[in-house]
Amino acid sequence: MMENRTFLKCYASSMLCAAAATLGAGFIAWWRGRRVDTAPAPTPQEPAARESRPVENAQGETDATRHVARRVIQYFVIPIWLVSGLTDWWCHRRTDIEHTTGLKESGLHLLMLGEAAFPVLAGLFMEIDVPVLSFMIASFFVHEATAMWDVSYAVTRREVQPVEQHVHSFLEMVPLMAVSLIAVLHWPQVQALLGRRVIRSTPPRLKREPLGLPYALGALGMMAVFEVLPYCEEALRDWKANPGRLTPPAGQPA
């Protein structure tokens, strides 16, 4: 048991360190891009051609690639995430979460939902620049650490059945799939995070090619129905079963 706890702590710590490193890389890339705008023009004795690393504006992939990748995210990745989240809620309900792990686990579920909120909203509405991409990647790492915390607590007080374990694999890999596709679409920003390019920093802005109001409203509505409302209901049910307690009393009947 101690070895398992040590592994869990090391895994969670490594995810948090990766998140911090990603945010740090994003800040450095943003700062380098910001300095480009304020750098003095090169003198005749110091021509711009001497730049060892090119400074350029972010460019996307081809229109066809962008179109296909967007459709995969919109109509494949996000629906899988929504269905997986609702199925996970159903698994919690079947194992009587309000009398086993209680509000503490529900709070972790809401925390993970919040960690996923920024990448989803950014992907729907924001132009993906270097800071936004770094926050999206960091959110994935933090979500992984929280997921490990969640499961390591849940298995001590209730049965995590095979179906739920399988659902968890989707809930962990779907965000990675989404971030990977977004990274492919915005490869210059990834290179900037790695220090291979310098991209001029710009203020946060909405997408130049919006997804469309009907899709955005539909996606937000489905997220509310499939994710937000079920997990809020779960937390409320846990609170009613054990008012004022994060965890149910030991030995409480199901």
Structure commentary:
- With about 250 residues, this protein is an all-alpha fold.
- The protein is about 70% helix and about 0% strand.
- It is built from seven helices and two strands, in the order αβαααααβα.
- The chain is globular and about 60 Å long.
- Mean pLDDT is about 85; it is low at about 45-60.
Considering the chains and any ligands shown, give keywords for the structure.
two-stranded parallel ribbon; 2% strand; 7 helices; 254 residues; 70% helix; membrane; 2 strands
Concise structural overview:
This protein is mostly helical and 254 residues long. The protein has helices at 2-38, 63-94, 102-125, 130-154, 162-185, 187-193, 213-241; strands at residues 55-56, 198-199. Helix 4 (130-154) runs antiparallel to helix 5 (162-185).
The DSSP helix count reads 7
Mean of pLDDT: 85
Rg on CA atoms, Å = 22 Å
Strand content: under 5%
Structural class by secondary-structure content:
mainly alpha
Q: What order do the strands of the largest sheet run in, or round the barrel if closed? A: 1-2
- Total count of strands: 2
Set out the fold topology:
Layout: H1 2-38, E1 55-56, H2 63-94, H3 102-125, H4 130-154, H5 162-185, H6 187-193, E2 198-199, H7 213-241
Helix pairs in contact: 1-4, 2-5, 2-7, 3-4, 3-7, 4-5
Protein name: Diguanylate cyclase
Keywords: Membrane, Transmembrane, Transmembrane helix
Organism: Komagataeibacter xylinus NBRC 13693
